[in-house]
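Re: that chain you flagged

S.,

Sorry for the slow reply, it's been a week of failed gels. I finally had a moment to sit down with the sequence you sent. For the record, here it is as I used it:
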Amino acid sequence: MVSYMSLLIYGVGGIAVAGLALLVAFQEKLVYVPVLPGLTKSYPITPARLRLIFEDVWLTSSDGVRLHSWFIKFSPNSTGPTILFFQENAGSILLADIAHRLEMVRIMLQKLHCNVFMLSYRGYGASDGYPSQQGITRDAQAALDHLSQRTDIDTSQIVVFGRSLGGAVGAVVTKNNPDKVAALILENTFTSILDMAGVLLPFLKWFIGGSISSGPKILNFIVRSPWSTIDVVGQIKQPILFLSGLRDEMVPPFQMQMLYAKAAAHNKRCTFVDFPTGMHMDTWLAGGDHYWKSVRTFIQQNVDQKKLFVIVSQDLSLPCVSVADGSSFRSVIAQMLLICYCYAV
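Prediction finished late last night. Pasting the structure tokens below so you have them in one place:
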């Protein structure tokens, strides 16, 4: 006769196996949320409603998935930087509450005098397909390739901007394209999905974890979308700006600090700025002028200045004083004085 203890063990084991099977089968639905419950994937408002200059752009990823995006220009003849914006999770490039995306982009245009390219990942918004790490990485590359081939922008001033999940996406595409991306901006981004598993579902921290976790990590092998940003940022050579909301209710702020520490150990052109009242989705709003000044200064020092001195060097035929990628703003000023001196003599 089977004892009650045996029945209990078999029951718990069966539940565990069933739970593991469900986790394996439906993990993409847990990681990716193309639309919030109760909302539709349609676009009730477009940039036209905000009187923005834009065009609908349809891309095809390398595996044939059709993707929707918006290219929004600061002005018809804008020559400023172009922001390639990778969105956070839970929605398309337009939430029902436009304050978190289109309104933010409208202010971004005003504050930075830039163009903005907004991509809907596969399965999000009007884009076809189903989201996965490999697929979204292909989508991001398709967006960057499109921008790099445009003739109406300065392709040397493409800045990748990623928030939350978009930061993980942006880090990968920046690492893979050192010749196409001038700089990277990360906002409220996680170290990895493996680390976030234990944050969102605490019982999982005993089985799944990333490089900052101390658990046994025995189930890491089942995770198909690990998005290990902390392993990527240490390989990025371009300048990186980290924007962290200290009241982030989704991604623990210490994860942003760890990303910065990992990147700064290999890259001297890293800047960290925190915002005491910033939450996961509203750091740009809570940060106010300080937020936009931080972004503007970063771009001016690492993108605009680099372009300026390349032009000066070419115009004066002085290749010996061209600015290296690693130049700080102070060294750029020194280069300018050197150019003036060489020209005078």
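What I noticed first: The CA atoms of residues 68 and 151 lie 20 Å apart.

Talk soon,
D.
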